[in-house]
Specification:
The chain contains 9 helices and 19 strands. With 438 residues, the chain is of the alpha+beta class. It has 2 domains: 191 residues, RNA polymerase II/Efflux pump adaptor protein, barrel-sandwich hybrid domain (OB fold (Dihydrolipoamide Acetyltransferase, E2P), Beta Barrel); 199 residues, Chloramphenicol Acetyltransferase. Strands 9, 12, 15, 16, 17, 18 and 19 form a 7-stranded mixed beta sheet that branches. A hairpin with a 4-residue loop joins strand 13 and strand 14. Helix 7 crosses helix 8.
Length: 438
């Protein structure tokens, strides 16, 4: 018999942690290799974690709602063969490298498989307790066997009555939870983001309390990290899209009948951005701590919203695609998001984000950068406005604002201004005579 561990897998590029939204198995369940164990949410994708072994679930280290870093142990499986799957280790729980050394002194019975779970803390519980100076020895657990859960720590923090020790040997001696090896210089920065603490908000009669879902927590974490780490700057340009509007409207009915999907304005804007990125490759970059990485491929992330979440699937090599091809990908990706069928691979590799905020009537907005990208462009609503033309003439034109948020560590106003000016030029010249959708 051997005890194998299952760890939080890498669920997407730049994803550093995942939240257990629901366990599919329980302790004692028998599973086959590749059977789903748990549903996990990140800021980019929902996914199931498959088993790497055939065996019996021995222990669930994490609980529903726990957020763990990539590489942290989520459960243990007892197998008969004793073989080790690629990317895992056959260490028993007592040999787990990421278990804090001080924990052994605090809970010597931990090595006994039949002992209660009271003094066995998940990495998420340890991290939350250490961040808030909570003495775990003084916290009463509500989990199985008296185990302390993440919700127990959050309740203690919310109460304002935080138990602390005079000296904190556990916190001082505890190493950071084990993380998957990575060569990305920027990865350690994930721990530098401020922790969002529970807030004691009075609840009165008639108020509605809505639990924060796993995906909402993941979105909040990524947005907080982006705003904390990237110094955001913002700029805007207005574009005369009158010719584009006329051209697209002359094609849309025939296109829908022939192709079976809509020819949206957004496809034209994505194509214009892809062309401009090719001419201004500095924009297609990422901050990597001690260097800036200028990406070769132009992979455009697009924001797709559901009722309670926001996803960013990626159009790969957008500069090589026609307007028709981009329109088809926008439709396919959006349909997959809303049907819950988007894959992890379709969320990875984005180098620049374009957000269609105009779809819900916005005319000006300030987007948060899709970390670790260097910028995000908001395409606002196209509206008819009086515009002063040449020779002082006033005409009603179809105008659109393009709003850009940028990481000022990577980009400066000059190059971003030129980039936006080029997009403006491309959009204003789009017409039947100058632009092919095929």
């Amino acid at each position: 018999m051997a005890v194998e561990k299952i760890t939080m897998p890498q669920l997407g590029e730049s994803v550093t942690e995942g939240t257990i939204s629901r366990w599919i198995v329980s302790v004692g369940d028998k599973v086959n290799k590749y059977d789903p164990l748990a549903e996990v949410m990140t800021d980019k994708v929902n996914a199931e974690i498959p088993s790497s072994f055939t065996g019996t679930i021995k222990e669930l280290v994490a609980e529903d709602g726990d957020t763990l870093a990539i590489g942290e142990v989520i459960c243990y499986i007892e197998t008969e063969g004793g073989g080790v799957a690629e990317g895992t280790t056959s260490e028993a729980p007592k040999q787990e490298a990421s278990a804090p050394k001080a924990e052994a002194a605090a809970a010597p019975a931990e090595t006994d498989a039949d002992a209660p779970n009271k003094s066995r803390y998940s990495p998420a519980v340890l991290r939350l307790a250490q961040d808030n100076n909570v003495d775990l020895a003084q916290v009463k657990g509500t989990g199985a066997g008296g185990r302390i859960t993440r919700k127990d720590i959050q309740a203690v923090i919310a109460s304002g009555n935080i138990p602390t020790a005079d000296s904190k040997p556990e916190a001082a001696a505890a190493p950071a939870p084990e993380a998957a090896p990575t060569s990305k210089p920027a990865a350690p920065a994930a721990t530098s983001a401020p922790k969002a603490q529970p807030v004691n908000v009075p609840v009165e009669a008639g108020d509605i309390e809505i639990p924060v879902s796993g995906i909402r927590k993941a979105i909040a974490t990524n947005m907080l990290r982006s705003k904390h780490e990237a110094p955001h700057a913002w700029t805007m340009i207005e574009v005369d899209a009158t010719n584009l509007v006329g051209y697209r409207n002359s094609l849309k009915n025939e296109f829908k009948k022939k192709e079976g999907y809509n020819l949206t304005f957004f496809a034209f804007f994505v194509k214009a951005v892809a062309q401009a990125l090719k001419e201004f490759p500095q924009i297609n970059s990422m901050w990597a701590g001690d260097k800036i990485v200028q990406k070769k491929d132009i992979n455009i992330s697009i924001a797709v919203a559901t009722d309670d979440a926001l996803y960013v699937p990626v159009i790969k090599n957008a500069d090589e695609k026609t307007i028709k091809g981009i329109a088809r990908e926008i439709t396919d990706l959006a349909n997959k998001v809303r049907a819950g069928k988007l894959t992890s691979a379709e969320m990875q590799g984005g180098t620049f984000t374009v957000n269609n905020t105009g779809s819900f009537g916005s005319v000006q907005s300030m987007g948060i950068i899709n970390y670790p990208q260097a910028a995000i462009l908001q395409v606002e609503s196209i509206v008819k406005r009086p515009v002063v033309m040449d020779h002082g003439m006033i005409a009603v034109r179809d105008m659109v604002n393009l709003c850009m948020s940028l990481d000022h560590r990577v980009l400066d106003g000059l190059v971003c201004g030129r980039f936006l000016a080029r997009i403006k030029e491309i959009i204003e010249k789009m017409s039947k005579e100058n632009t092919s959708i095929y």
